[in-house]
UniProtKB/TrEMBL annotation:
Short name of one Pfam family: DSBA
Source organism, top-level taxon: Bacteria
InterPro entries linked to this entry: DSBA-like_thioredoxin_dom, GLR_AS, Thioredoxin-like_sf
Matching CDD domains: DsbA_FrnE
Protein name from the UniProt record: DsbA family oxidoreductase
Organism: Paenibacillus elgii
Domain annotation DSBA-like thioredoxin: ranges: 5-193
Molecular function terms from GO: oxidoreductase activity
Length: 217
């Protein structure tokens, strides 16, 4: 039995980026399908986050998020982009990438571009370049953004996340019939996956996450 895993995330959520590694480790060699699901923490016209000009959020990154990344052995930066970009264009691009069989690869590239390379993933030129780097047609991708070809598909994905799945913080994992809210370590993910593969019941768990009110804890 294949276990389906859906991960709701936003590209500017630090814990979503940090959730990638443990998940990749946990699913190795297992009969699972992973799908990353769009969720915008701060959709336009909501004021975007600006951690470099928000002392409490800057302290949170320095005192909590950065040490957590270090413990995981992950190179991570707080991007010097003030404010952080909106992610709707990046997610419209995700719909293009998914349609062309590179959805998960696209997500990985965008997380790395933002949190390791400090690239502006709200810029269409940057997004097209990144799409090209993973083997997508950069010109066709850029045209899709310019024409809004995937705008409706992205909005439908957001409506699903907000209204049907009831997501209020990310990352949130739907692993078969179980839900994990917040970042989870490899061992926890492996346990839940094993329970699902065996058809066993289990408890939901919660970890560090970023919520729609701009808090990451």
């Amino acid at each position: 039995m294949t276990v389906k895993i859906q991960v709701y995330s936003d590209y500017v959520c630090p814990f979503c980026f940090l959730a990638e590694g443990p998940l990749e480790q946990a699913v190795q060699g297992k009969d699972v399908e992973v799908e990353w699901m769009p969720f915008e923490l701060r959709p336009s016209p909501t004021e975007p986050l600006d951690p470099w000009n928000d002392p409490p959020k800057l302290r949170m990154f320095e005192q909590s998020i950065a040490p957590y990344a270090q413990r995981l052995g992950i190179d991570m930066k707080l991007p010097r982009l003030s404010p952080h970009p909106y992610t709707h264009l990046a997610f419209e691009g995700y719909q293009y990438a998914k349609e062309h069989g590179k959805g998960n690869e696209y997500n990985h590239r965008l997380f790395r571009a933002f949190f390791q390379e400090e690239q502006n993933i709200g810029d269409p030129d940057v997004l097209a370049k990144l799409a090209g780097e993973i083997g997508l047609d950069a010109a066709e991708y850029r045209e899709a953004l310019e024409t809004g070809k995937y705008k409706e598909a992205h909005q439908q994905a957001l409506n699903h996340a907000y209204r049907e799945a009831g997501i209020t913080a990310v990352p949130t994992f739907f692993i078969g019939n179980k839900v994990l809210r917040g970042i989870a370590n490899r061992e926890t993910l492996e346990q839940v996956i094993a329970e699902e593969l065996a058809g066993q019941a289990g408890k939901a768990a919660e970890g560090l996450s970023c919520s729609v009110d701009g808090e990451c804890d």
